[in-house]
Amino acid sequence: LKEENALLRSKINKLQILSETQADKMRKLEKKLEENKIKEEKETQDLEAMVQHVEQNLQLMTKRAAKAENSAAKLRQENAQLQAELRNSRLENEALQAGQAGLAAAKQNAEVALQLLLQVTTSSRASIRQLLSGAESLQLIADLLKSIDRISEVSEDGQ
């Protein structure tokens, strides 16, 4: 009976040691779980902040694109007006050449109109390039937002 008692005590000691070891493991796992939760919450907050920042940038880029479109439309209109003036100046120039009267003035008007037309054309091209650049930026942001949606979907599926 004493041997059996000693054997049982030994088993009880081993079980207590095993229980303490498992309790330590449990505490470590609970601590790690809490750390992971905190880390995940921070990552979620960072991701939300990034999404908000991207949305703000998208709104700003949209406003810029709208301004660029308006500017391009105005420049196109001005370009058309200047081209009409140029045509009129050329017609006037031709009429003056036929009559040999006021040739120098017509040439000067045509040259001024041509220079203005070239300036507007150059300005129009630059505005159109800006508009295209803004559109490319908007496309990039839209693709980024799609990627963020996919990441959040994967995160939700993983939980």
From TrEMBL:
Task: Give the residues annotated as coiled coil.
Answer: 12-99
The UniProt keywords, alphabetically, are: Coiled coil
One BP term from GO: regulation of cytokinesis
Q: Does the keyword Membrane apply?
A: no
GO cellular component, as recorded: centrosome; ciliary basal body; early endosome; midbody; recycling endosome
Q: By its UniProt entry, which InterPro entries does this protein fall under?
A: ENTR1
Query: Which family, according to UniProt?
Result: Belongs to the ENTR1 family.
Task: State the protein's name.
Answer: Endosome-associated-trafficking regulator 1
State the species of origin. Answer: Hippolais icterina (icterine warbler)
**Which gene is this protein's source?**
Sdccag3
